[in-house]
């Protein structure tokens, strides 16, 4: 690939990312509706009845899904915290039970209803190596496009994102952010991989400064900085890389001005983690064989999201052919071939 063509492709990819992260010009109802309307991608058959690749709508998979937090201020007793204001005199408040619950991580947050989750402070022992974990169970495999975190406190000095491919698999690192990548995570400070190393876990020092003191955003794009993303359909490793059933944010080290060494109570109480919103841009993983995800109640009484499979496929992710439809091996649908399962005669 020539340098000029590579540069143009990078610019096009950047434009796509801007489109993903930009705030849509929609009404609040449209913005927070789980499913957008008037789509063509959900059609699994064309106007002539021929099978074609179809995908469920893009959504915020985290919206109104309760995250589990290993630490929350006010949970056991009222605790005092002081806000970082950039001046010596600090404004202190009391956090009581219910003031900053984990449910506020994924609720409908706006200027008229500003909510946030918050941990206890450094005064209560929230400091490295004691980490705080925030876990999100999506209930089904999703193709993750991005994870966006809006911090109410200063962004952490070191933190990470982990994923799990299914409920029985182990947690795998997804992305790290740290001013001390090598010391904290034993990783070099890198923003991108090289070809052939597409699923390498990265750590970057970007977004690890204590400024801004509030409303700092970090958006992790699962495919940004991975050259083979331009040929995603032909890359099984990357297709698996973007998939997750569960996500976890680990908050490892607070950002400070260094004044905590003096042991002043109000200073220690001014250092804590607080997050206003967590969003996960994703689609239900249906391998190109379903245009929607629906709720299904299993024999154990639990309600789960499942793909409404087409193309004679079956399984929670349309990951197999229906019985007696194995004339050709199952395959993931692409823009060139729907890989419809065909009846055996």
TrEMBL record:
Domain Laminin N-terminal: 50-283
InterPro entries, per database record: Laminin/Netrin_ECM (IPR050440), Laminin_N (IPR008211), LE_dom (IPR002049), LMN_ATRN_NET-like_EGF (IPR056863)
Pfam families: EGF_LMN_ATRN (PF24973), Laminin_N (PF00055)
Signal recorded as keyword: yes
CDD domains registered for this protein in UniProt: EGF_Lam
Highest taxon, organism lineage: Eukaryota
Transmembrane segments: none
Keywords: Disulfide bond, Glycoprotein, Laminin EGF-like domain, Repeat, Signal
Keyword Transport: no
Signal peptide: 1-22
A GO-annotated cellular component: basement membrane
Gene Ontology annotations of biological process type: animal organ morphogenesis; axon guidance; tissue development
Protein name in the entry: Laminin N-terminal domain-containing protein
Organism in which the protein naturally occurs: Frieseomelitta varia
